[in-house]
Amino acid sequence: MNKPVELYIAERREVDPSFGGLLAKGFALLRCFVNEPRPMGNSELVERLQLPRATVSRLCRTLYQLGYLDWDPNLDKYFVGAQVLALGYPYLLGLQVRHIAHPMMQKVADTIEGAVSMGVAHHLEVTYLESCVHKEGTPAKPGAGATRSVLTTAMGRAYLATLSKSNLARILADAEQDRPDEYHAHIDAVRANIANYPKRGFAVNEGDAGLGVHGVGVYSKIVHLNRPLLFNCAMPGSQVKRGMLEKRVAPLLMEMTRSIERAVGLSD
C-alpha cells in the first residue's frame, strides 16, 4: 500500500462501511517494517504513512506494549518485535504440505543450481512460505514471510494468468493506481505471460524482479485456507542460457508440482 493510509481507508469504506480504520492504521505501520526491515523513528513513520504525529506515536506505543514493536532507546527508533512471528505461526503449522514438498523442492533446486519456492498470492503481493536453495542458490533467497510483487515474479504472473477477467482487471487497475511506476515498467511482460500461460502452463520472469534473477512460476491445484499454492524456480541470470527456462527448468518445475499434488491426494 503506497498511497496515504487515510485515503486507502476512505476508499475501502466506500465499498465496506464497516472497514476498521484504526486497525488498518496499525497494520499499515507494521508493514513499513516489512517493506524496509530496519529501525525507524516516529518522524520517518509519519512521513511514510502521512498520518498525524500524535496518531503515529500512539500506535507505536500501543504496538510496543503488545510486543509487536520493540524500541531502541539509544537510537530512539522502533523495530519489529518477536511477537509478530506468533501471528504467522498457526498458518505455517497448518501448512503440512511444506513437509511433503520440501524434499522434492530441494531436489529440483540442486538440479538447476538455484532456488525453488512455494508461496501464495494476496492482491498485489506474493508471500513466500518455503524456499529451498542449492548451496549459494541465487542472489535473492526469500524466506518464509518474505513478500514480492505479483507483477514482477514468475509465480505472481502464474497467479494472475489463472484469474477471471473481472478479477484480473480489478487487480491490474489497483496496481496501476497504487504502483504506477512498477505497473508501466512490467505490464507488457505481465500481459504476455497471461496470454501464453494456457498454452505452455507456466510464467516467466526474465530479470524483471531485479538482482539479475530469472525465474519460472506455476499455479498448483493445492489450496490452503482458500488460497492456491504457487511454486517457482529462480536462478542467477548469469547461469541462464537462451531457452533454458522454457526447455529445461519449466518441465522440471511442472513435474515437481504434479508430484506434490499427487502426494497430497490430488489426481492429474
What descriptors fit this protein?
268 residues, alpha+beta, Arc Repressor Mutant, subunit A, Beta-Lactamase, six-stranded antiparallel sheet, two-stranded antiparallel ribbon, 10 helices, 8 strands, HTH_MetabolicPath_Reg
Description:
With 268 residues, this protein is an alpha+beta fold. 51% of the residues lie in helices and 20% in strands. The protein is built from ten helices and eight strands. The chain has helices at 5-15, 21-35, 42-49, 53-66, 83-93, 97-112, 154-161, 165-178, 180-200, 244-263, and strands at 69-72, 77-80, 115-122, 125-133, 147-149, 203-206, 213-224, 227-236. The strands form two sheets. Strands 5-4-3-8-7-6 form a six-stranded antiparallel beta sheet. It starts with a helix and ends in a 5-residue tail after the last helix. The model has no long low-confidence stretch (mean pLDDT 90). Residues 20-82 form the HTH iclR-type domain. It holds the Pfam family IclR_C. One of its GO terms (biological process) is negative regulation of DNA-templated transcription.
Number of domains: 2
Low-confidence stretches: none
N-to-C series of helices and strands: HHHHEEHHEEEHHHEEEH
Determine the mean pLDDT: 90
| Total number of strands | 8
Note the quaternary state here. single chain
User: Taking strands numbered 1, 2, ... along the chain, how are they ordered across the largest sheet?
Assistant: 5-4-3-8-7-6
What's this model, at a glance?
The chain is built from ten helices and eight strands.
Task: Draw up the topology in text.
Elements: H1 5-15, H2 21-35, H3 42-49, H4 53-66, E1 69-72, E2 77-80, H5 83-93, H6 97-112, E3 115-122, E4 125-133, E5 147-149, H7 154-161, H8 165-178, H9 180-200, E6 203-206, E7 213-224, E8 227-236, H10 244-263
Antiparallel strand pairs: 1-2, 3-4, 3-8, 4-5, 6-7, 7-8
Helix pairs in contact: 1-2, 3-4, 6-10, 7-9, 8-9
